[in-house]
Amino acid sequence: MAHENELNLKATELRLGLPGTDESEDMVSIAKNNKRASPESVEDSGSKANSAAKSGDHETSSASKAQIVGWPPVRSYRKNNLQSKKAESESGMYVKVSMDGAPYLRKVDLKVYNGYPELLMALENMFKLSIGEYSEREGYEGSEYAPAYEDKDGDLMLVGDVPWDMFMSSCKRLRIMRGSEAKGLGCAV
Amino acid sequence: MDPKLKKTKDSSSNSANSPDSTHSSFPFPDEVLERVLSLLHSHKDRSSVSLVCKDWYNAERWTRTKLFIGNCYSVSPEIVARRFPRIKSVTLKGKPRFSDFNLVPQYWGADVHSWLVMFAKVYPFLEELRLKRMTLSDESLKFLATSFPGFKALSLLSCDGFSTDGLKAIATHCKNLTELDIQENGIDDFGGGWLSSFSENCSSLEVLNFASLSSDVSFDALEKLVRRCKSLRILKVNKSISLDQLQQLLVHAPQLIELGTGSFQQELTPWQYEDLETAFSNCKNLQALSGLWEATSLHLPVLYAACASLTFLNLSYAALQSGELAKLVAHSPNLRRLWVLDTVGDKGLEAVGSSCPLLEELRVFPADPYELDLHHGVTEAGFLAVSHGCRKLHYVLYFCRQMTNAAVATIVLNCPDFTHFRLCIMNPGEPDYLTNEPMDEAFGAVVKTCTNLRRLAVSGLLTDLTFKYIGKYAKNLETLSVAFAGSSDRGMQCVLQGCPKLRKLEIRDSPFGNAALLSGVEKYETMRSLWMSACNVTMSACRLLAKDMPRLNVEVMRDEGSDDRQADKVYVYRSVAGPRRDAPPFVLSL
Fold first, then answer.
1. Is-cis flag, bond preceding B579, omega within 30?
2. Quick check: A35 and B559 CB within 8 A?
3. How far is CA B214 from the centre of its chain?
4. Residue-averaged pLDDT of chain B
5. Where is this region: Disordered (chain B) (predicted)?
């Protein structure tokens, strides 16, 4: 699946369908859906709709599921209302980013990133450093730097533990800590 | 002219002429028959009455004042005008239901204008117009506003083609307006100025619903309007109205029966909070509550006093968590209908099960239909919990991502009185997540147990067995919605052959082909309509159907780039008006 977007969160990821199932053989044959699927269709465990018609197709692009026209059957007004609600509350989510040792802080707009990988890459570019791979157990063990953030309660938290959306709504500011200082942040509770 | 026709079109009074019946055996004079029939309101009853004999047909048509047309293309304005001389209220429905989900291209039709032109000629005293899935322009609205001096009530649901300028015309010209109900339409919102177009003399409003419009309205104009309209019983404002503004409105309208709030998020001082609480507790007649955008646990408590009398709570635009919902329903023991977002989770639904024993209808909508967030929603557990506590449940619309056959079987055992069972497992072709089997047994249980079932929507991994069950047991079924289901033509055939009361069948993305389509040749005239899209039907079968059944309109729309032989979207409906004359080029009338 789309590992590169999920920061190896596979273990905690909410999956649809049984583990190990990729595409069942005796699927209901569904008539021509190819035209309907959006260009970024994805072979997801449990997703049988369009994949039935194109059995050999294993496009794995973004984390978004295949969006079939008119499915699920929710009226446009209702769909737009929920999505626009999100947009309203997140207009320009700029947070300060400090890096230990740097002379001045930067600001990033969390809204422009779709997930942790993009954010971390942006931080790496901004500060010319490397952050490394996240793991639930070790945090950013072995990297020179580790990204941390201050949440709504004022606590210093490691970036990557919670789902992206939750992170976005609770992150007040970011702090890039030196790897040596960050040891201890990566320990699971 | 038919000698049995006792009245001419010029006759204006019921009892002007003495009875002149040529049916000597018929004991009742016209006046009596008409008097009796004028007490009939159900259009189904009236249809039955009109079939008894010519006298009754005539008496019925002279006394009918409410017109209900479920498919605007099933009949023409001319035919209607000829038959019914005295219509005061019209309900018109247009596009197929799947147009709500973008399956019908724009400019498909169902334009109301030709109807309005006829109404202006034949029914100048028209008072009410209720449109669903129709297209109407601002010009049509202006025409409506200026052609009917006694016009009172306009209700628009899922319509498109107009803007707030059209509403302005209504507000300006309809001096006796009692109802303006604008719901979920494809409307161009050019601002809230239309509300200010109500004349200062307008005090007749009883229903005002502009909840689905986004622009700010003049609060001053709204407040004055609410103050003047003492008979206002339904008020649903939009998001632009804040909490403290709402409080001011409620102070003037404590008689409200239905309230749709504006935005429910605002920093309030303790006094404002208290005032709001008081305003709500003074609404002793409140039965329905909706709106509540952005409501949080901070402000929900102001509602508690009003919750005691509530029978309908629509929280489907408020992303509440389980705890918030639990507290709210704890104060609402009289709830009959509840609409929520799946953010409330199974825990929230458990609370519903324990707090609302009188619940009859539950709708759970998905807050995140495209799974853009890692959002859990509800599962079979929530539905089960509600079924345990709410034994009177008979209407459900449930969006979820997992379900089991066993759960559904238990649910219908707990609640055997379902009349409407609409289950949407959001992942197409999703099996029972515990057994990995198709969901056939679930829907089998539904149709076997719920003998009063009138509407069914199926989902999940389904074979022909589901449809065999439906054909065998669902003898009262009127509406069936199918998506990504079935294995062969046999499935659809079972339904067509087995469900005597079927009126509306809508199918998408299922492997039903020509044999299935043609097996219903005699059935379709007894139904309102059939929709099939992305199935296996070809043009030749559609042409055959059209040829064999002249009183059916068979319309095909083809997708771009698809094979010439494929009938991608098929819409079949009975009609006494013949093929559409206003079909756009992409609709092929066969």
1. no
2. yes
3. 22
4. 93
5. 1-26
pLDDT band, residue B373 (cuts 50/70/90): low
pLDDT value for A115: 85
Answer whether A36 touches B (CB < 8 Å): yes
pLDDT(A9) > 80: no
Helix axes B405-414, B440-449, angle to 10 degrees: 10
B260: β partners = B236, B290
Q: Is the Cβ–Cβ distance between B428 and A51 less than 8 Å? A: no
**Distance between CA atoms of B532 and B514, rounded to whole angstroms?**
11
Which of the residues B99, B158, B365, B370 would you substitute to probe the A interface, choosing the one with the greatest number of A C-beta atoms within 10 Å?
B370
Nearest-CA distance B275 → chain A (Å): 27
Tell me if chain A has a CB within 8 Å of the CB of B103.
yes
DSSP string, A160-172: TSS-HHHHHHH--
- Which of A50, A78, A169 best probes binding to B when mutated, by most B CB atoms within 10 angstroms? A78
H helix and E strand count, chain A: 6, 5
* B228-273 pLDDT per residue, tens: 999 999 999 999 999 999 999 999 999 999 999 999 988 888 899 9
Query: What ipTM was estimated for this complex?
Result: 0.87
Record the pTM.
0.77
Rg of chain B's alpha carbons, rounded to an integer? Answer: 26
Answer whether B150 touches A (CB < 8 Å).
no
**CB contact at 8 A, A142 and A162:** no
B293/A85 CB distance under 8 A: yes
Dihedrals phi, psi of B558, to nearest 5 degrees: -105, 145
Who among A29, A48, A65 is closest to B370 (CB)?
A65
Please, are residues B552 and B506 in contact by the beta-carbon 8 Å criterion? Answer: no
Distance CA B572, CA B259 (A): 40
- Which tokens hold the place of B175? 């001096």
Q: How far apart are CA B255 and CA B251, in angstroms?
A: 10
Average pLDDT over residues B41-66: 92
Nearest by CB to residue B103, choosing from A47, A48, A69, is A69
CA B8 vs CA B12, B14, B58: distances in Å: 9, 11, 11
Does A79 contact chain B (CB < 8 Å)?
Answer: yes
Interface test with A, best of B104, B508, B563 (most A CBs within 10 A): B508
For residue B534, give the nearest of B586, B468, B459, B484 by alpha carbon.
Answer: B484
As a whole number of angstroms, the distance between CA B502 and CA B474 comes to 9
Give the pair of three-digit tokens for residue B567.
Answer: 């009938």
The confidence score (pLDDT) of residue A14 equals 60
Provide the pLDDT for residue A8.
54
Q: Which of B376, B429, B436 sits opposite A14 (nearest CB)?
A: B376
Q: What is the pLDDT of residue A167?
A: 87
